[in-house]
């Protein structure tokens, strides 16, 4: 799956690096001094690299855990996010990562212990401290490569005031199923309706397969969550999302669902410009979006209408206390 691995010299002899390389014996290994020389190089084509991405193994030196954006959360007292990996196995046309990064290569920071130490330092006793994974990468899609979740579960098992969200479109739940369920580790599955999945979410497992993964986790006692963020405009928007909600809630019990979030499609105008240049033929970028201040999104009135309708529709399936509209200022 991975044809080429760039390895920073500082992590070449790390046991985690050795383990990853051992699982990819056919990959070419190229030593590098700093990951930025590859990942941040200006002369790169994200669209071309996405067809055959390489893996970069590196060391992160600082800023392990960051405050989450104001609208990002599910009711916790303190919200943080972290990114032990940058870029994603999947290829969703609306994803802001293709506008943020010059490279489509997978960048994995090997020093997991430094992330967990920083998480430990951020925990305020007696408060609900949330740590969100999946902001800059899918949390589970490359778990067979990274092994991050396997390292994180014992850590969170001993910290009752720390909550971990693993946000994903993957069905890679084997590591979780092999572990005793933890009430403070929530696997949050992202969904859009069938037509949007087929048209824009390339390489993403089908809706039904993701629901089956949710079912498996729920049956084993793991809390699961739903993320309808972003909402994507399409013909027959109301009917499409109603059908999606019915499909999910007919198979996953409400009692197993920790929360559901709803959010708008928004991106900085520079990200949008980059994405539009990568995919000029993409219908998502040529109609329906409008610029508001420094952001590109659906027109304000339509965005509010979509959020309000989806919230009301979700309340047919979930108590309002479990529904969190995430609305950036």
From TrEMBL:
Coiled coil: none annotated. GO terms for cellular component: endospore-forming forespore. Keywords: Lyase. Pfam families: SPL. The keyword Lyase applies. One of its GO terms (molecular function) is 4 iron, 4 sulfur cluster binding. Signal peptide: none annotated. It comes from the Bacteria. InterPro entries: SPL. This is DNA photolyase. The lineage of its organism: Bacteria, Pseudomonadati, Pseudomonadota, Gammaproteobacteria, sulfur-oxidizing symbionts.
């Amino acid at each position: 799956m991975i044809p080429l691995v760039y390895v920073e010299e500082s992590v070449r002899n790390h046991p985690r690096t050795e383990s990853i390389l051992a699982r990819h014996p056919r990959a070419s290994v190229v030593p590098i001094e700093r990951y930025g020389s590859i990942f941040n190089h200006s002369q790169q084509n994200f669209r071309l690299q996405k067809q055959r991405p390489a893996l970069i193994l590196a060391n992160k030196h600082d800023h392990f855990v960051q405050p989450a954006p104001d609208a990002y959360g599910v009711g916790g007292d303190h919200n943080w996010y972290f990114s032990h990996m940058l870029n994603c196995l999947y290829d969703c046309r609306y994803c802001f990562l293709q506008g943020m990064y010059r490279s489509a290569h997978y960048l994995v920071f090997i020093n997991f212990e430094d992330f967990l130490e920083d998480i430990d330092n951020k925990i305020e006793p007696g408060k609900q401290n949330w740590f969100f994974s999946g902001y800059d990468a899918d949390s589970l899609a490359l778990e067979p490569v990274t092994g991050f979740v396997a390292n994180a579960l014992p850590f969170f098992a001993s910290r009752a005031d720390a909550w971990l969200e693993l946000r994903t479109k993957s069905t890679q739940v084997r590591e979780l199923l092999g572990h005793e369920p933890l009430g403070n580790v929530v696997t949050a599955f992202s969904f859009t309706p069938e037509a949007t999945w087929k048209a824009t979410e390339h390489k993403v497992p089908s809706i039904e397969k993701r629901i089956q993964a949710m079912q498996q986790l729920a049956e084993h006692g793991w809390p699961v969550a739903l993320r309808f963020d972003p909402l994507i405009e399409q013909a027959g928007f109301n009917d499409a999302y109603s059908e999606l909600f019915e499909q999910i809630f007919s198979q996953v019990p409400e009692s197993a669902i920790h929360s559901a979030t709803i959010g708008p499609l928004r991106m900085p105008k520079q990200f949008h410009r980059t994405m539009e240049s990568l995919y000029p033929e993409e219908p998502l970028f040529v109609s329906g979006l409008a610029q508001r201040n420094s952001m590109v999104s659906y027109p304000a009135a339509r965005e509010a209408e979509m959020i309000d309708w989806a919230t009301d529709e979700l309340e047919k399936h979930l108590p309002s206390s479990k529904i969190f509209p995430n609305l950036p200022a």
